[in-house]
Amino acid sequence: MRKPFCMAVLVLMTASPAFADQTDPRLDQLFEELRVGDARRAEENTARIIEIWSDSQSDTVDLLYERANLAANNGAFDLSLALLDHIVGLAPNFAQGYALRGTVRLAAENRAGAIEDFSKVLELEPRQFEVRTTLAELLLAGGERRDAYEMFQKALEWNPHDDYARRQARMLRREIDGQEI
Hints:
Distance between the termini: 16 Å
InterPro entries: TPR-like_helical_dom_sf (IPR011990), TPR_rpt (IPR019734), Ycf3 (IPR050498)
Oligomer: single chain
Mean pLDDT: 86
Radius of gyration: 16 Å
Pfam families: TPR_19
CATH class of the largest domain: Mainly Alpha
CATH architecture of the largest domain: Alpha Horseshoe
CATH topology of the largest domain: Serine Threonine Protein Phosphatase 5, Tetratricopeptide repeat
TPR repeats: 95-128, 129-162
Largest sheet: none
Low-confidence stretches: 1-21
Shape: globular
Helix content: over 70%
Number of domains: 2
Keywords: Repeat, Signal, TPR repeat
Strand content: under 5%
Structural class: mainly alpha
Signal peptide: 1-20
Number of strands: 0
């Protein structure tokens, strides 16, 4: 029987897209370049994608996001979470607000809250390869190797140049080879 945590992650894997404010036309071109382009430009394209994702189109939300990120980096998780709660209240379609809150919740050992936030990120932006990699790690930590492999594969669909995700997927593929998938 699967653990409830793993069932929540499995629901994320099949979430249908709702692009909300992640429809910046530059993203499609950058993702196409990332998917079919060479590795030399991958880091630059990834940085540009994350930069676009991190722009909420609101000066207030952007300022709160910067402060929440700074607070999290300094270990002030309670302050960061309070700021992030305001962010997702002010900008409910800003996927990076949920992504950062999920990361902070994970650091504060609130896995259920993190998974909830990561679920919202994938609902808003299914191409969010960083969140998919994090979810794959959570699945792996929960002993769900096959599901972790599938999530790493989904991350690699959007960013095939992620060496870490590729190594993890290969390792898991070797481990589960010969077993029913």
